[in-house]
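Subgroup meeting minutes
Present: P.N., E.W., G.H.
Scribe: E.W.

1. P.N. recapped why we're keeping a running log of single-chain structure predictions: easier to compare across weeks, and new members can see raw inputs and outputs side by side.
2. G.H. added today's entry (223 aa).
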Amino acid sequence: MTRLNLMAAIKRLFGNFRSSRQFEKRSESESRSSIQWVAAGLGNPGEEYSRARHNAGFMTIDRIARAKGAGLSRRRFKGVTAEVTLAGQPAILVKPQTFYNLSGECISDLLGYFKIAPEHLIVVHDELDLEAGRLRIKQGGGDAGNRGVRSIAELLATTEFIRVRIGIGRPPENEENKDYLLRAMTAAEREALTPILERAASAVEAIAEHGLEAAMNRYNQRG
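Output recorded in log:
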C-alpha cells in the first residue's frame, strides 16, 4: 500500500468513527427530547425495606415495569430507571435510591436532564392521612408531613407535580408511625395492599392517556 493510499484509508477510518459518534450523540439527544413523562415511586432501597408500607411507591413502579416487560436496571441520577411507553408516549420509570426523605435529589436531576416540566412528573407514594385501601390523585398542595414529597418540592421549587397517593391509614394506637411505615408487612397485610397497588399502576397510565382531570374523576372514587 502506498503512503497516499494509507493516508486515505486512515482518513476513511476516522471519518467513519466520527460519523458513528455523531450518530450516537444525535440519537441520545433525540431520546432525551422525546421523553414525555416521568413516573417516580418513593421508597427505601434494600431488602430490609422491600416489604414495608413506605415502599408502596416502589412496589407500584415495579408493577408497571413488569407489565411493560421492562427491567429497572439502569443506574443514573442516584436512582434505578427504565424507559417505557405510557399511553404510547415515551416515559421513564424511576425508583430513587437516595432513601425516601432525599428523593428530590434524584428526581430533580432527572427532570433537568430530560427537560421535563414538573406537570409531567407523576410521583407515587404512601399516605398516612388517607384511609387504607383508598387512592387519591392530586396536583400541587401541601406535603402533609411526607418528607419525600417535601424534598421533591424543595428541589424543583414547585409543588405543581402530580401525585398518586396510596392510602395506608394510621397505625394502631400501640405502634409508632415510623415502625408502622418501615416494618415488613405480614403476608395478610401485603395481600390487602395488592389491589390498591394495581389500581395505582393503572392510574399512572390513565393520567398519561386521558389527562389529569379525567384520571382524578375515575380514580378518586371509592373502589
